[in-house]
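May I ask for a single protein's sequence together with how it folds?
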Amino acid sequence: MIREDDRYRWLFRNCPALMGSIDADGRYVDASDAYLKRLGYTREEIIGRRPQEHMTAEAARRMSEEYLPRFLRTGVLTDVPMDRIAKNGEVVEFMMSAIAERDAEGNFSRSIAVFTEQTQAARIERHYRDVYRQTPAMLHTTGLDARIEAVSDYWLEKLGYPRDEVVGAPVMSFLTEASREQAEKCMPRAFETGMLHEERLDFIGKDGGTLEGLVSASADRNEEGAVRRMLVVVHDVTERNRAEAEKQRAFEEIARLNEELRRERDYLREEVKVALNFGRIVGSGTAIKRVLKQVELVAPTDANVMIFGESGTGKELIASAIHERSERGDGPMVRVNCGAIPRELFESEFFGHVKGSFTGAVKDRIGRFELADGGTLFLDEVGEIPLDLQSKLLRVLQEGEFERVGEDRTRKVNVRVLAATNRDLKAEMQARRFREDLYFRLNVIPIEIPPLRERVEDIPQLAAHFVELASRQLKRPAPKLTQANLLELQRYHWPGNIRELQNVIERAAILSQGNRLQFDLPDAKQAPPPESVSSGSAEVQILREADRRQRDREAIIAALQKASGRVAGRGGAAEILGVKPTTLTSRINALGIKKPART
């Protein structure tokens, strides 16, 4: 009696089809007579050997990288190219289909493959499959089960996967979570309509990175017109999107910097106006009228102006008046207090710097010259600029060019310069502390601001103006200025000039009781009335230079004693006199005053 196994073996071997059977170890367990005859081998030469021994190198590579991984996952292969080498060396081109046989536990036990020798049409189809794989585009083909059936080499290269991890795997496993949700919505529509156009889907690379893709697809249909698979093209737009995002960030940064520049210009312009008593020039005496006449003459020109005057005389106010009456009045007016800038930051303050050019340069910064481009740059206390930096300032004034600190690029600006000083710059030039060429470049038109002691006739107007300002700030009715008040103010020699007058009146307004003002002037009550002569309708004080210096000396000594020897800080002599600490220090040195020991 013939056993069941023998019957099946006989049928397998005598079947006219070209067939082979491979076990779980990947070796031949049997082959049909037709298969053996076509290749010229005996059964003994085949059994127990691996199929790869009779394959071309390309077929062996495809088997290990593409067909076998897919077969182990799906249990089926359909019409895949599979060349065999016959015993006589002939390369026989087959199309192979295979099915897996599994045991009771579902484990792979063996496979049965059927080989069909290729016709000319099949060879052409195989050629196009090779072209598909070698196309320099991200291509993959998915079946109705959304598993990848074929993939181009470029697809694998872009995402970094080996072929055996891709073929047969669900396409969803290569998408980001957000793109999976999007694919679940668009794939049914694609299979229904047979096309997909530039759907944004992001893929996950082998290294965990993301490839941003625009996905298009078209259908491969059977004879009845039903979709059987989709040919998918992925266009990598990662770099394009990154460049667009970078460009957008750059535009936003430029907009932010422009807005920052606009705000800084507006802030600086407003800062100057506020600091200068809201742009008002108060006084109608001969001395201030002479100054205002000069302002009217020089403002329409583009000439540089040097404003001389003691501290507190209103040099900034005059500079602001020149700017506002000039053709640059709608542009920025940028103030630089040269006496308040640390020496090591002078270049950065004037010309700006680039990120990383020195310790603390954490971002690019524009300098005051750039801020003032198209407008006016006001250099207050210009005599404080270090000698070795004056040449760089001179270059900008001569050529209108400079470089930011840490940058090679030359920048151009169109700036009018107004400078102010309370120093004797001619003496500074003789002492070689100020460049002569810079002096003449700045001092095209000099304007001398008289000290308040030479504007006694303007004190009533100034006092009334400051009382009004103080009352407005304190939100209380303005106290009345009596004739005695005005006489007391006119008797005082005002070493701190208008700034000191404003401070004295503000202090009196704060401390005033009822409608009365009481001033705290050290020597006004003891001093005799100043000698004066009539000048039209105004009384002009006559004070010899020696007397003026003696009064300045006495006032400074008194302030130092009251401040226990301190010049700067709250309650210091500079605050008492209403002058800047640097100005007071210069006067102390010039008058040869010894500071009392601090207590």
Observations:
- The CA atoms of residues 201 and 339 lie 61 Å apart.
- The first strand starts at residue 18 and ends at 23.
- The two ends are 130 Å apart (CA to CA).
- Residues 4-119 form a domain with the Beta-Lactamase fold (CATH 3.30.450.20).
